TrEMBL record, chain A:
InterPro entries: AAA+_ATPase, ABC_SmlMolc_Importer, ABC_transporter-like_ATP-bd, ABC_transporter-like_CS, P-loop_NTPase. SMART domains: AAA (SM00382). It holds the Pfam family ABC_tran. It comes from Pseudidiomarina insulisalsae. Keywords: ATP-binding, Nucleotide-binding, Transport. This is ABC transporter domain-containing protein. Residues 11-226 form the ABC transporter domain. GO terms for molecular function: ATP binding; ATP hydrolysis activity.
TrEMBL record, chain B:
SUPFAM superfamilies: MetI-like (SSF161098). It comes from Pseudidiomarina insulisalsae. InterPro entries: MetI-like, MetI-like_sf. Its main location: membrane. It is a multi-pass membrane protein. GO terms for biological process: transmembrane transport. GO terms for cellular component: plasma membrane. It is found in: Cell membrane. Residues 46-250 form the ABC transmembrane type-1 domain. Keywords: Cell membrane, Membrane, Transmembrane, Transmembrane helix, Transport. The keyword Lipoprotein does not apply. The chain crosses the membrane at residues 49-73, 85-106, 126-145, 187-209, 232-251, 290-314, 334-359, 371-393, 405-426, 467-490, 510-528. This is ABC transmembrane type-1 domain-containing protein.
Amino acid sequence: MNKHRAADSSVELSRCQLLWRDGKQVELPPCQLAPGETLGVMGPSGCGKSTWLRWLLGVQQDYVDVAGAIYFGSRRVDHLPIEERSTGMVMQDQSLFPHYSVADNLAFALRAQRLGRQQRQQVIAGQLDALGLAGYQQRLPQQLSGGEKARISLLRAVLARPQLILLDEPFNGLDAARRRQVCEWTYAFLREQRIAAIIVSHDAADLSGAQQRLQWPESGNRKDEE
Amino acid sequence: MRKKLAWTMAISLILVFLALPWLLALQGLSWNLPGLTAELWRYPGIGTAITTSLLCGVSATLLSTCLASLFISKSEGSRQLKGSGLSLTFAAPHLAFAIAFLWLLTPYGWIDRLIPWLTLGFEQQSLTTLITILVIKETPFLVVLGRQQLAQLPHQQWLLQAQILGASRTRGWWLVVFPAWLRQMRLLIIAVAIYSVAVVDIALVAGPLNPPLLGPLLMSWQQQFGVAEQNLAAQGLWLVLAAGVFMVAWVKLQEWSVKRLCRGLLRRAGGNHRWLPEGAISVSLQLLKWVLLAVTLLSGLALLAMSLGQGWFYPRLTPLEWQFAEAWQLALGSLPVVVMTLALALATAVMVTVILVTLREWQRLRGHEFADIWFIAALLIPQLGLVIAWLQAESLPVVSMHAEHAWLLTWYAHCWFAFAYSYLSYAPAERACSQMHLNLGRSLGYGYWKSWWYFKRPALRDALKHCLLVSFLVSLAQYVPTVLLGSGYIQTLTTELVALSSGAELRLPAIIASVLWVLAALAILMTARGAPASAPIRKLTGREE
Amino acid sequence: MRQFHLALRMTVVVFLWLTFSFSSNAAEQQPVRFYAWGGSAEVNAYIEWASTELAAEHGIALEHVRVADISEAVTLLLAARPDEPVAIDLLWINGENFAALKQANRLLGELPRQVPNAVNLREDLNWQNDFGTPVDGYELPWGIAQLQLIVRSSRLETGQTILAPSQLLALAQQTPGRFSYPKPPSFHGTSWLKALAFQLLEQPEQLLEPAPQHAAEVLAPLWRYLDQLHPLLWRGGEEFPVTAARQRQLYNQGVVDNSVTFNPNEVAALQQQLKLAPDAVSVSLGSRALTNFHYLAVPVASQRQQAALQVIQFFLSAAAQQRKADPSGWGDPSVVRIDESQARLFPSHPEPHVSWNHALEQGWLARYQR
């Protein structure tokens, strides 16, 4: 699925309208992200950010209608199933498979690249080394600290070479000092890997490294307008 | 201070309740290990008895695990497989089912008379028949409890993550969710494995008898009074325990192989080519579900027909006479046994629920969780081995000579075994329930239990119902402890059924089996009413916020 | 939670009711706990009839404790200390079980003196010997058993009443897979071996003496015969019906063409009750049939011996024996003189000495349970 990826093609989101079954509606402006560029979306909890993210990811949601389009370069992807959409996602906690080791978790993301056993081990070791996590291959997620988990979750998402990575409140659950550190690293890493990303958070500080910002718009009500 | 004392006393009592049987079993274990020269090894056919028992344990465990895994994997997506068909089979008391199964499906049985050219291959007294009945009974058990276990895993997130990383839903299921589910199911599968390797009641009715499997063989030794047989029983006890250990190892091996296979596939490069014949599996599971449902319904009808008909000789499809009045008389005659069975089962259900609730609350109060294994260890040892060890403990046989003691002992044993099963269903649900409401209630000035009753119990309604139901059903089905500890004072429908099925009659066992079935069905109906379908965690795919 | 309340209330009610019914029973009537095999509806019904009569006439509450095998009760009795009271008041017993209890001194003696109806016992029957163990007043006969074969009439010539072992072998050769016999060491299975041994041994009178050291050699003709027969049996002689009752069930289902009974009246009685296919007839295995008795005995440790003796007295009454012999019920022949026509009994030979049991059972198991 990822082999179609055209180098340096940008991610383009058309104007997008979310219409909930209960009448609530939100309209988002169009936006374009170059590789390595990050969009920070801020809004209070409960405003519908996560619903939007799940739509971007391709999850079926029967309580909301979304009108909008997603383009990777010239290719429209919003009709593709999750596994073919070349979109990654990182969540605050339960991203990693707890019953598999770090190496297994990362290997899962590398499947598409059809590497040999040795090559695969080299890639994993090299990447962990670069993150300062050398020798972590055989650890289980429960043996990692919050910051380590966050880094490995993002690394796993990146290793699958997606066009776009979605981060849903990725720094929740980290203490203040580490939060800052992980936050800075995340932006730097995404830039370095040249992957477009959308970060959603309720905290403005989390979005300081984003090139583009979007304040989640006030929701209207269709019935009021009528 | 007084409250603290009450807690301490209650908990001490519960701990004594749980621990006493272990101490007694240790006392009763004769350290008469069957050495190389023991007469046990000279018993005719002992080799066959051991190998067939292990074969029975391994194949029943393997088959029911495989089938349950497939059902669970499919029930995740398809609506039809979620239905109550399997629960219906689950609800059928195994012994009643076995009797109907034999009558329907063995050569010259009813189906054979109806469709003579159909060869099913289920002989009377055969290993294949026994394994089939075990698999039919254990698959629904694993599926029903497997769904509960699955609900405790964030499997929807994992599936989503797997899809995000490019795997199809199917592939994500088998590579990521399945090994975790199997690990979660370990104790339940061990319980199934232990049961299959040391099964007594169904083996007596449907299994091979020349030689019998280890369970019935040991049981027959224990029930004979000769010195030689008592000695064989003492040595055979170790054999059954060893078979239990073997089965635990087998379950671990199953799990390990799956994990290894999945890890291998996880790393292997490749797209989502169809590596399982998905469509074919779906169709066969659908078909199997209908077959199971049909066999279960037909068995129920067969028992009813066998209860009412007399003179059902080959090759007749219908009996010579339908005798409604006589059947009713016989059913009325079994009323004292029904009362005894009900009293025992209800008393067990209530006692187990009270103990379980107290124990869980105490753990929550102290903020300390003991590992599950301590509470369900009773399921990990062949029941027959335990009961025989108790009987060989010095203090017990004397006690059980008196009717009141036999009552208490049997009740105790029922509670003890039912506790383990109910723990499996109640503890996880309780653990998932927040203590917040209870604490809120206490902050409003209610006492602990009052607060529990008003604020926490409503949240646990289904779990409590399920706990009552499980312990009721377990008590209903107990054979070995009732026969051996009740010393003839306690006759339940299950012991009557086994005793009668060694006879020539069809009708009386059929009536008893029908009553047993009706009781189980009533219990299930009473507890199922209004219970919502299990709600899997849908944090990501469901409505948020 | 309504169900929870309901369950709780029901339990309390049931307990109260049970306690009440037990205690009120105990106050009015003398209970007698009768340990007896419970595998036959007719026998159970007969005992139930008896308990109704006993309650009405003698104020005795006869409780039938149904056991799958009376050895369960023997185990209990032998496990208790000799001086300890037990709750077993009456036993339906014979053979090895009797021998074990008699040897351990667990049975009440001098029964003929304490049960007046014992004087009516038939003298023409040799009941004083129970499988080679002298009865010596420790048990009283209750009924008669004679081993007969039940065979599908289509396999026999009309009017045939005797089936010699050689004829059986010939039948099995004609229709392989249609015959079987109850598995030793079940009661009927061992009896079948004994009956065959009487027919096949060169000197059958050896069986009346204690089994010698070289019992295996003496039994060689029996094993030769079975080696020939087994491959022609149901399931190739690999499995056997576990009891005679199970074999009757298989007969009715059409799986096998023969069964075994120890009750001379049984074929007619069962057919009348639609519990045996109408095409069944009984024949004797050889010209003489193995005959034995089943008995009633009272444990010495029973607390209610007088009541138990009264029950025996009742069971040996003409009325009770006559009802027992009724083919529409149990159909067990009477052991006391009654006017009714007696059951059809074949010329008999006695049970072998009890020590042959072991030789036959162990020999069979070692050869055929593999």
